[in-house]
Amino acid sequence: MTEHQESVSGIILDESTTFSLDELSGACEVQVELIVALVEEGIIEPLESRSVEWQFPATQLPRARKAMHLYHDLELNLAGVALALELLDEVSELRSRLRQLESSF
């Protein structure tokens, strides 16, 4: 019997980790132009928007990946992606508040 070995790779992130525009597009497996469109739509934000070379905090990677999932898999346009992410953020915030209230009783 042969053993099947599976390889897993990942990126270790901390609060000081940043991504360049090219690195973020590579991590999301999309063209740079789509990342630029996400920034223009306000879906993700670079650390300094006026900088010649954008740097993105590590916290933007999961958000960008979630945006790509909505864009590709659910075929939402970028405005729809922005709205969906805003609503998901709001639901997450409300659930957090509910947990805090429940734990105080």
UniProtKB/TrEMBL annotation:
This is Chaperone modulatory protein CbpM. Pfam families: MerR_2. It comes from Thiohalophilus thiocyanatoxydans. It comes from the Bacteria.
